[in-house]
Amino acid sequence: MAAFSSSAPLSSFSKSKSRPPSSKARSNPAFTINFLRISNKTHLKFATSPLKSLPSVKPKTPVSPSNPFSLASLRRWAKSNTWGGYELRIAAKTVLGGVQLGDSISVNGTCLTVTAFDPVASQFSVGLSPETLRKTSLGELGPGSPVNLERALQPTSRMGGHFVQGHVDGTGEIVKFELEGDSIWVKVKTSPELLRYIVPKGFITVDGTSLTVVQVYDEDDCFDFMLVAYTQQKVAIPKKKVGDKVNLEVDILGKYVEKLLRGGIST
């Protein structure tokens, strides 16, 4: 996996003598660091067309169920000749262990269905619907783009993050990178419709990575989070630059609570 290094787009980063106005965010940074955990996912499966593929193979090195997350590279983004939609072909190794047609694999936080795979060539394909292209940033990817991949959660796994469905609520735009020690602050701007579900010390999924929100800036429609050195090496976010889009999934509990309160709770 490509580690974050000086060759990454550091032109987007700036060092600052001051941090955001929240004193709580600075007074106890360890709280944030301990909970910057990569998420485990609960994906739904979708029906797929019967496509030919090589049979499932057992990986030489078993995949740890507590760390199903990996960084991969997009190989092809094109119109599908099979079913007329759009197709992503992705180079990957770790996530192909035991994969089957119809399995769900999260690509930058988007739950997608495996339509073909080739464990010998270490690649798999997923289809994209028009709604997926409208709601996510996947349409902006190109050959060689790094993507975050994660298999669906197994019931026997440790849950190192929050429950994530892989159903992207919308996108945000990176507006700032800032270095502090070996960690990176990332500030993201999103719509007010999504920001109302984002709270300090709450959950947020950015390109499929489960992160802890540090501060919310309602006046700017922004929020920020911190990436520790280890996380920087495992995800694609540090490889992006200011102005790039990221996929966002908010904590679903907030949406359920809002709906119940709006409609009134009867007993």
TrEMBL record:
Its EC number is 2.5.1.9. Pfam families: Lum_binding (PF00677). Gene3D superfamilies: 2.40.30.20. Lumazine-binding repeats lie at residues 63-162, 163-261. GO terms for molecular function: riboflavin synthase activity. Pathway: Cofactor biosynthesis; riboflavin biosynthesis; riboflavin from 2-hydroxy-3-oxobutyl phosphate and 5-amino-6-(D-ribitylamino)uracil: step 2/2. It is an enzyme of class 2 (transferase). Residues 1-27 have a biased composition (Low complexity). Residues 63-162, 163-261 form the Lumazine-binding domain. Catalyzes the dismutation of two molecules of 6,7-dimethyl-8-ribityllumazine, resulting in the formation of riboflavin and 5-amino-6-(D-ribitylamino)uracil. NCBIfam families: PRK09289.1 (NF006767), ribE (TIGR00187). This is Riboflavin synthase.
